[in-house]
Amino acid sequence: MTNVRDALVAVEAGADAIGVVLASPSPRSVTPEDAREIFAAVQPSVTTVAVTSTGRAEDLPAILSLHPDAVQVPVDLELPSHAGVHVIRMLAPGDPMRDDCDAVIIDASHGRGRAFDLDYARSCVATSSVPVILAGGLNPGNVTAAIRAVRPYAVDVCSGVEATPGMKDGRLVRAFVKACRMMDP
Known about the structure:
TIM Barrel; single chain; seven-stranded parallel beta sheet; alpha/beta; 6 helices; two-stranded antiparallel sheet
């Protein structure tokens, strides 16, 4: 999310979590001040996620000062044990499975909308000791089939519900969440 309006649209549509991109070269990246405002606008029952591709430990204090519920980090970046957040590690085909985190997100796309690798995603779900989140190329038209094929713990969407890079399309956000909810047991 890059703004409060989009975050509130997602929450009203029924999203369980919202994320902001920090310390990353991306059209979706926001300042810590914007992230703080977005996180403050959503209700406490919605999980807040700080997403970063930084490999620099010196970037972590600013990210952790936002008090997200979870931080999504590259494979090898270590968070301090006292951070008090859930750790989500990004994995792509070829990466070894990780269990030194609270969840893994399968996405070689990194927000660019490239489709996930079906065989790799299925393998991760079958072998992971932590929840697996599926991302990469998902949109309202294909998320139901992706959930059926992979059976992830959760799904993550970014470019698949955008009007332009960084700006969400409310109609697509609502359609995506509705498609996901059709899969609820």
